[in-house]
Amino acid sequence: MPKFRITTEDPKGRARSTVSAPNEEAAAAEAQRGLADMSRDNLPDGERLNLKAKVENDSGNEVYRASLEFKAKWPEQIRRPDEESGAGG
Questions:
Q1: In this structure, are strands 62-71 and 13-20 parallel, antiparallel, or unpaired?
Q2: Quick one: DSSP state of residue 35?
Q3: What tens-digit pLDDT sequence spans the chain (89 residues)?
Q4: What distance in Å separates the CA atoms of residue 45 and residue 55, rounded to the nearest whole number?
Q5: How far apart are CA 11 and CA 13, in angstroms?
């Protein structure tokens, strides 16, 4: 079975693992599950979070890349469209 290297990146740093998978799609699915796990481990922790994953085949060629971006805003940070245009009562 082919081997793939998955590199993930979160606020704590970078990690690499090697997985055996029947094809690129299965390796990409493993990277996606890793991103979901990372989001559970890191949220909530502030207003922003960027998570990344990439998959390389055994030749070192990148075959998949994914990222998740989390942004949060509290009421005082949210501008309503009518406030931005100067309209409103």
A1: unpaired
A2: H
A3: 999 999 999 988 999 999 999 999 999 999 999 999 999 888 877 889 999 999 999 999 999 999 999 999 888 888 876 665 655 54
A4: 26
A5: 6
